[in-house]
Amino acid sequence: MVARRRLSRCLVLTLLTILAATSVSPGSARGETTSAPEADDGARVVRETRVSDRVLDLEISSPALGRIAMVRLLVPAGWHERARRDWPVLWLLHGCCEPADYRSWTQFTDVEEFTANLPVLVVMPSGGRAGMYSAWWNFGLGGAPDWERFHVTEVRQILERGYGAGARRAVAGLSVGGFGAMHYAFRHPDLFGAAASYSGLLNTLGAHVPELIKGILVREGFPLWLALWGSEHLNRALWVSHNPYDNIERLRGKPLYVSSGNGLPGPFDPPYRLDALESAASVSSQEFTRKLRHAGIEVTTDFGAGTHSWPYWQQALRRSWPVLAKGLGL
Question: Which residues, if any, are the signal sequence (predicted)?
């Protein structure tokens, strides 16, 4: 009887040990005994999940969003639990309406392989179904969701205070995330040293682009699209304040990269495939780069055939790396 009790006790202790190893509290995954790092507004990590040797998922309780949201980290070689080194940080933003959300870059591209030998901490945050990388106007009331604050304040502070993120940063994104990259770069020029957009809508007040944005919002379950930035006519100043095209001077001196296909079949497409969304992204991106060059602001571009799809964005990340690396001081 005593032997059985001892055996049962051993089994319980073994199970508890396994649970502790696989479901860790913030801090313990990094071998720390201190409390989890918090942002100034109280945003904090409520759970960490080690997906693989280099992939770490964070569940963050966010006052800016009024809920929990996810961030995936791709840590560099040499990053480990008790490291105190500060790493350059590459932010990768996904596009609108992608079910894979924060997992999309690692699911659809070779970013894990590409960065294997790079001394960079890669941050891939959730952007919501159609968060537009913005603080929503909410008819003048403000409040959640504020995706901009979640990313550039809450996540940034948490990563700097507990995950080895340094002060050298670059941001890149695809589709709506391409808009997000340029949006964050001009609204926070002191935070991001370089920016890259792949198939982004970089002139949100260009021909038919407001209608495209409204259509995306309605399709994704936000019929009151005015909650984002209001009316492009009645609230034009608000739209302008979020439009990369209207704020190019705040990008001057920053390494920039812009790419897009033209919606016609390219090397990664079957014959005869046409893509109206990529065509719209091409027009918007080229309007933006023409204005940059007219103002004497340098930008690296890559325009050609191709559609709105992941093989092109994977290629664009690799091609844009020299620009992003320059902004990271590498």
Answer: 1-29
- 233 phi-psi bin (left φ>0, alpha ψ -120 to 50, beta other): alpha
Phi, psi at residue 134, to the nearest 5°?
-145, 160
The total of other beta-carbon atoms located within 10 Å of residue 183's CB is 28
- Classify domain 26-327 at the CATH class level: alpha beta
Distance (Å, whole) CA 44 – CA 69: 11
Work out the burial of residue 320: count CB atoms within 10 Å of its CB; fewer than 13 is exposed, 13-18 middle, 19 or more buried. buried
Residue-wise pLDDT tens digits, 136-195 = 999 999 999 999 999 999 999 999 999 999 999 999 999 999 999 999 999 999 999 999
Beta-carbon count within 10 A of 99 CB: 8
Strand pairing report for 67-74 and 55-62:
antiparallel
Model confidence, pTM: 0.89
- Scanning the chain, the segments in alpha helix (DSSP H) are 2-22, 104-108, 111-114, 147-149, 156-162, 176-187, 209-219, 226-229, 236-241, 276-294, 310-327
Residue ranges of domains in the chain: 26-327
- The residue among 257, 259, 122, 109 whose CA lies nearest residue 196 is 257
Write out the two tokens for 220: 């994704």
**Which residue, chain included where needed, has tokens 């340094």?**
166
* Half-sphere exposure (Cβ direction) of 21: Cα atoms closer than 13 Å: 6
Cα–Cα distances (Å) from 293 to 74, 245, 256, in that order, read: 34, 12, 11
Q: Residue 76 CA to chain centroid, in angstroms?
A: 18
Strand-pair partners of 93: 173
